[in-house]
Amino acid sequence: MMETRGIEQMFDFQRLPNDGLVLVLLLLYSPIGLCLMLLRIFIGVHVFLVSCALPDSLVRRFIVRIMCSVLGMHVRQNSPRLRDKQAKLLVSNHVTQFDHNVINLLTSCNTPMLEGAAGFVCWARGFMELGSEGESRAELAGTLQRYCVTPQAPPLLLFPEEDTTNGRAGLLKFSSWPFSVTDSIQPVALLVRRPFLAVSTPESTWLKELLWTFFVPFTVYHVRWLPPMSKQEGDSHQDFANKVQEFLATELGVVSTQITKADKAEHIKRKRHTAALAAAQATSTNLGARPRTVPQGFMSLSRGAEDPRVVRMAQQVKDVLPDIPLRVITMDLLRTNCVDTTITNLLERIEEYPTEASSDSASGSLRQQPSSSAPSSSHAAGAGPIPTIKPAADSFGRSPGDRHMSLQERKEALYEYARRRYKDKHALNQEDDL
């Protein structure tokens, strides 16, 4: 099982640095960065038009590379003589959303779009549309095999990690399917550095990454060409992938891990859940107050409240306790993740909550009756009598048995009231049970 500490080091989960001095410098730089970003957006449109107008050639790559330097994307390369012109497959580690564009500035290559929408955006980002949507990895590998045997076709560029890392700690486990395309590949080591900010964060879109690239003074992409590698006789595709991963990790000075793309997604999901629980616990001590916005790494409390499962559970509790505000119910559900536990919690502290005005609610009847008076019954329009609900005790029971009976009676009365309201609403036979 993967170590949480290891996966935390492989990704930058926040954009801004923790160093106070760097934050002050970034704040002072912000006006310049905003002006630079607006100017680079204007220049970037021209770079896109030039790259579309000129045919793929050494001249175009040189011109676009110079213009990308103006945009803050500085590309350097080591050992260009090691570039094998006969290699039909390039394999690289994955750091940013623009790795394929950077390597394409140095050599002609194509990168297939594996995830995301096809069409204009796919083409504009420099991806190649190959195969059909929903195609499995095995089917995609077969399509790429046919592409590689096509004469004069540019080489393919693939990222076996299938997701980005920060490039400083380790490599994700390489997928085996890219190594089934051909028996000979050329590894490419990629290092990315920039001042102030992280080069990428999980779940950030390519458009946000582009704007941050325009905002910072520069981002340096260092491309290192490595000697070609061939699969040995008897090696499986996964064995070949592991060898290439170890070789790339050694050249980059990082660790070759068994952490996969799915492990990264699971870790992000776990961080979301932890953030939601922390936010719910922070607000549970003051449920009657207006909820505060608590920034969390990946997800605030409001995002948790929009979960369809939470909304469905909240409606179930609302049917039983119609006078409790939906906001209060949702916050307790985010903490307990259980309908019955939330109902129990709210019943135990029902006097603390601001209730919603409702002439036919059970809690409204409780507040209108003095504790010393006898319980009275009310009638719903066009229906039988609403069950009588005993008022809350003036004081807490002295023994656990007394407290349990008081709570149990109130719960049973409210459940019965909810059943009656449901029957009245749907015009059900009063003799039937829910």
From TrEMBL:
| The keyword Endoplasmic reticulum appears for this protein | yes
GO terms classed as biological process: ERAD pathway
> Where in or outside the cell?
Endoplasmic reticulum membrane; Lipid droplet
Report biased composition (Basic and acidic residues) as residue ranges: 400-410
The Polar residues compositionally biased stretches are 356-369
Sorted UniProt keywords: Endoplasmic reticulum, Lipid droplet, Membrane, Transmembrane, Transmembrane helix
Which residue stretches does the UniProt record annotate as biased composition, category Low complexity? 370-387
Q: Where is the CUE domain?
A: 309-351
Residue ranges for the region (Disordered) are 354-410
Q: How does it sit in the membrane?
A: Peripheral membrane protein
Q: Name one GO cellular component term.
A: lipid droplet
Task: Fetch the InterPro entries from UniProt.
Answer: AUP1_CUE, CUE
TM ranges: 21-43
The family database entries (Gene3D superfamilies) matched by this protein are listed as: DNA helicase RuvA subunit, C-terminal domain
What's a Gene Ontology MF term here? ubiquitin binding
Similarity comment: family membership: Belongs to the AUP1 family.
Name used for this protein in its record:
Lipid droplet-regulating VLDL assembly factor AUP1
Gene name?
A: aup1
